[in-house]
Amino acid sequence: MAGREGAPGAGSLAGLSVREIETLVTPPYRAKQVFRWVHVRGALSYDEMSDVPKALREALAARLPARSSRVVESHRSDDGTVKLLVGLADGERVECVLIPEGDRRTACISTQVGCGVGCVFCASGAQGVVRNLEAHEIVEQVLWLRDAVAGGERAEGTRLSNIVVMGMGEPLHNVPNVVRALRLVQDPDGIDIGSRRITVSTSGPRKGFEELLASGLRVNLAISLHAATDELRRRLVPKGGTGTVAELHDMAGRWFEATGRDVTFEYVLLGGVNDRDDDAEALARLAGRHRNVNLIPMNPVSFAPELKAPLPESVERFSAILRRAGVVVHTRRQRGDDVAAACGQLRLSRAP
Hints:
18% strand; TIM Barrel
């Protein structure tokens, strides 16, 4: 039965580990049953937990829901990208995206309502940051996107292959909840996505980086660079949270030393702003070994009409300069433009 004290506060079952559910139920083996119903079989309510005694289901339901959020809007792009607008228990909304490509099914998830970094090209920060997401709210995005893989049906038997923490918000402004959520999705009795298939993207706030490093979570790291000089980066990422481009380079080196994993520099290409040959050459000098580059042609955004996507020939020339310098470079293909798949666009368009 339920009723034992000791589980930490949580907004839904999705935010609790097996051990924490054990503090709520007896006998203890029921905890793994309940956990698997939520994380493996995708139960949306206690009524679905057919092998759990009714009295236990009712007692748990009186304490917290299986999931606390709901899908407010769902949009599927012609290229298969799915964009969800997720409503939270307090009425706030966040976005998450399912990106299918070949055999990969990648969940792109948010960590804050809004964002306080203020990248000039990003809709997430257009209205500032409202609050951090709790761990269960982060995990639930993964569950909703896994449901989307299954076409909106209950997700048992379906799998996501990768998670990128690249949605709304700065993950390293919310390290405790991000780390907790990612440990939950890594649980082999649950969603079971390994650390090598999880990437955290950050603008590089010093304090948050130190917290992530100290947590022992050894996922892939992507640093939102967007410029190879301090002056230009301050213009593009006005609240990036670190002093200089050199410090970001040092951060990448420390992450590689701690994890043995190359770091990716993310670089949004803005036409006529940071896509010149000089920019590419400066970036090539900065990147070097163990630092890959992910070029991202800008998605046009309505709130900043002065910013333009780069010309295709500029993207190719920029990439060629990096490759000639020996830099491992990838150019991200734009996806989901027809469903406002770039971070924060859908939430911004629905703002009152």
